[in-house]
Amino acid sequence: MVKGAEVVIIGGGIIGSSIAYYLAKEGCDDVVILEREYASWGATGRCGAGIRQQWGTEMNCRLAKGSVDLFKDLSAELDYDIEFAQGGYLVLATSQTQLEQYRRNVVLQNSLGIPSKIVTPQEAREIVPILRTDGLPGAAYCPTDGHANPFKTNLAYLRAAQRLGVSFYKFTEAKGIEMKGGRVRGVLTSQGRIETARVVNAAGGYSAQIGKMAGLEIPTYSERHQIMVTEPLDHLFDPMVISFTSGLYCQQVPPGSILMGMGDPDEPHSHNITSSWQFLRKMAREALKILPILRDIRVVRQWAGLYNKTPDAQPILGQAERLEGFYMAVGFSGHGFMIAPMVSLILARLIMGRKPPISVERLSLERFERGELVIEPSVVG
Amino acid sequence: MDEDTIICRCEDLTLKDIREAIEQGCTTLEEIKRATRCGMGPCQGRTCLPLVSSELARATGKKVDEILPCTVRPPLMPLKLGTIAGATNG
After folding, report:
1. Do B81 and A277 touch (CB under 8 A)?
2. Would you call A298 and B31 a contact, using CB atoms and an 8 Å cutoff?
3. Interior CA angle at A217 toward A262 and A267, to 5°?
4. For chain B, which residues make up each domain, given as ranges?
5. Which positions in chain A touch B30 (Cβ < 8 Å)?
6. B76 touches A: beta carbon within 8 Å
7. What is the pTM (predicted TM-score) of this model?
8. Which of A310, A329, A364, B21 is 20 to 30 A from residue A353's alpha carbon, by CA?
9. Distance from CA of A299 to the nearest CA of B (A)
């Protein structure tokens, strides 16, 4: 193992791998990624694969739009097919009040260059022919939303970073962070010590634990979210269909399988990633309410992963004020994969002391002490 | 064995696809699964994963029984959505 590095990144998921790539692209290739398991073991490999720009806060709209712009050229840039496709997102409304909220969101999204719009139940059915629209007041739709293969996107960034000189240590755990005089000095790992002045916490579900190693209280917590997937079918529909009322999301992915996930408001804070039978039943019932034609389709697999959440459902990005050299890209609250490209480009620029394409000062760790929260209402799953 | 031999019938993967994943740095079944989708189709790896295990053992110089299996994910056999939704037990 190397004895020292300019930057040590803790976490080899989509966030850690893409930060390493953009750092190397910006000219800093003396970078080490530590991964306790292997790439995509954690939240990246367990996520719903969707890429959505229809957000309720300006910050998330900007991060998501910027990421879509990067996703478009990513397969070519990284020389690895990440299966990015823009099949859209159809956001179902279950009440007139919710539809009015969507109208306001669409105005904000349009002002930021996101081509979302409100659609009638009939138009929704043209977009998703198998959708049951009884009692549906309307929906919001954005044709440039879409999906990509999370495993492949993770590997694409990782391999590209490695080609540029980044070192990747899998099955290597961060055990401690050394500090002196309010600065990062090194990282202790299961394979030895690495001297460094900069460490990036990209540990997903374990972000708070990494914070503790540096004496920082990061107000993130983890929560199990589950997904199931069916056998492959002929092409039925393009967009991700979601509902903020039930918390359901559902999409036909490239192999033809239909992937569906849903959160549970009673889910406790934990690192539990075992699958439950209760989820399977609740998910099947909710899915059949809107897509009853799928009754005879078989579920082949279910799994679970962690949302790493913050009190305002927005990520924590940037350097800690009280610990020089400690950077964070954590607390994505269920939407880390889709905003990873722009977030990681921003982090790389901040670490290099350069101006980021979008200012993320409002997403600092210290916003929680100051009470300057910007709550994102449009979280699903 | 011919490199064009189909290893994973559900996902249409050949021995060459598996060898490429190993060459690119995969050293466990879980990594190969994520990189290639091997074992993610309707049979959930019943046919392919034993074959991939022996290929991985050969490439890494390990014994086949030293290759850790993938996490077993429910349901153990494909179940219809309607059947699951209709279940009242539990």
Report:
1. no
2. no
3. 20
4. 6-86
5. 38, 41
6. no
7. 0.96
8. A310
9. 5
Q: What is the ipTM of this complex?
A: 0.91
A86-144+221-306, which class in CATH?
alpha beta
Q: Give the nearest partner residue to A40 out of B34, B41, B73, using CB atoms.
A: B34
- Beta-carbon separation of B24 and A159 below 8 A: yes
> What residue ranges do the domains of chain A occupy?
7-47+151-220+312-370, 86-144+221-306
Contacts of A305 (CB under 8 A, 6+ apart): A42, A43, A45, A46, A47, A205, A224, A225, A227, A273
Is B85 in Cβ contact with A255 (below 8 Å)? no
Is B80 in Cβ contact with A296 (below 8 Å)? yes
Q: Report pLDDT digits (tens) over A138-193.
A: 999 999 999 999 999 999 999 999 999 999 999 999 999 999 999 999 999 999 99
Model pLDDT for residues B5-24, shown as the tens digit of each residue: 999 999 999 999 999 999 99
CATH 3.40.50.1820 holds for B6-86: no
- Classify domain A7-47+151-220+312-370 by CATH architecture: 3-Layer(bba) Sandwich (3.50)
